[in-house]
Amino acid sequence: MNILYTASEALPYAASGGLADVAGSLPAALCKAGHDCRVVLPLYKSVTQEQRAELKFLLNFTVDVGWRRQYCGVFEGHANGVTYYLLDNEYYFARDGLYGFYDDCERFVFLSRAVIELVSHIDFKPDIINCNDWQTALVPVYYQTVYKFRPGYEDIKTVFTIHNIQYQGRYGMDVLGDIIGIPLYHARLLEYDGAVNLMKGAFETADKITTVSPSYAWEILDPWYSHGLDRALAGKQYKLCGFLNGIDTDLYDPSHDKAIAKNYSADDISGKAACKKALLKELGLADDGSPVIGIITRFVSHKGIDLIKYVFEEMLGLGCQFAILGSGEKIFEDFFKEMAWRRNDRVSVTVGFRPDLAKRIYAGADMFLMPSQSEPCGLAQMISMRYGTVPIVRETGGLRDSVKDAGGGDGNGFTFKTYNAHDMLSAVSRANDLYHSDNWDDLVRHDMKCDYSWDQSAKLYIGLYEELINRNDS
Questions:
Q1: Helix and strand numbers, DSSP H then E, in the chain
Q2: Is residue 215 domain-shared with residue 276, that is, in the same domain?
Q3: pLDDT tens digits, residue range 300-327?
Q4: Is 17 left (phi over 0), alpha (psi -120 to 50) or beta?
Q5: What is the spatial distance between Cα 240 and Cα 251, in angstroms, rounded to a whole number?
Q6: CB neighbours (10 Å) of residue 155?
Q7: How far apart are CA 99 and CA 200, in angstroms?
Q8: For a FRET experiment, which of 154, 315, 358, 452 has its CA 20 to 30 Å from that of 105?
Q9: Do residues 164 and 23 share a domain?
Q10: Residue 151 lies in a domain
Q11: Which residues pair with 170 in a beta bridge?
Q12: How does pLDDT run across 253-306, given as a tens digit for each residue?
């Protein structure tokens, strides 16, 4: 199959969050499985000079953005066996940062239109175009309303993947004619609650809608999780499904990771103790045999930080230590800093994000706490298990799909259902009890053997793509 995968960010060229990990890993897994998957993304200012030196200029064309015609240059790059097309327009993309600009609507209208226009300019006819989140949500809209019956665009199927339904691309109705430029009799595709909603447009026009975990697929039909889009999805359940994301098992491999103190594997976990000892020394925590709980997250309410704050003293009272890395809302940053100052032998807080320290926490901690209010997929819990660090999570989204409670004897972590601080405390207490038993190492080995590689997730996407293509043949 020929698959064109488009996103607003993708490793190794541009990243601000989990979308870049997916767009960097899933196409590589699809290519590894024998398919030709190519990635389209903007050529941002953040692409390094070393990376630019390896890019090859292919061609340029113009893109309709409302009443404008804008330049688009196409550069080709290669990484991890995948071909990347980086779209160049310095007015839109040569900026400090990826998002958060006053004209984001226009910038990503340009991207979506450029992606679909690109098909007629390169020697690659896709069977599937997989777009991601609101920034590329107009790709299926443009295909259905403008390009579907043009020569060279026959029988292309579109898939839209929701990574976080909270960010929808909502704008005033005036952008319909001034920027988006589809025929006004198609305005109903994008109109929602008196505004233009780009994600809703993808719901209406894509052949399939996927999410990043099975649980999230049904959660977003509930107003609690949908951020207002449940009504738009209610009639689209026939094309909605969820596949759990994977992780890069080469990047996160304790048997070869150079960032950690000592390598180890599921067959020999002795090196994990050395990693813990080194982490305690690095962070200035007491080396007294207490369990270390790792937290690597954004300090925002929907990540469950308010639950942690509410019972933090009680968790310390259980004998736990904390290695915390992240940044976010000032109220939470200040709280963690105060706790680190008051209990500097039990609590370490590093504000910001340091990838190497994150790996050392994954390797050196005993448990990993993720009490999210909502979590479309979550990768940290999978990474922690890869390093033999037992996750403690709330049962929501991808956390529910990847972590099963060990209370029954066959689980790989500790879970709690309700969004309640003391239910979380109970899960931490149960993990602490098992930590002080003879069965803890068995759980660590079991977690390290869990397979959350992209190879498994890619099989599900391949099945979906083949189903769509076979519809054309029938």
A1: 20, 18
A2: no
A3: 888 999 999 999 999 999 999 999 999 9
A4: beta
A5: 31
A6: 12
A7: 20
A8: 154
A9: yes
A10: yes
A11: 197
A12: 999 999 999 999 999 999 999 999 999 999 999 999 999 999 999 998 889 999
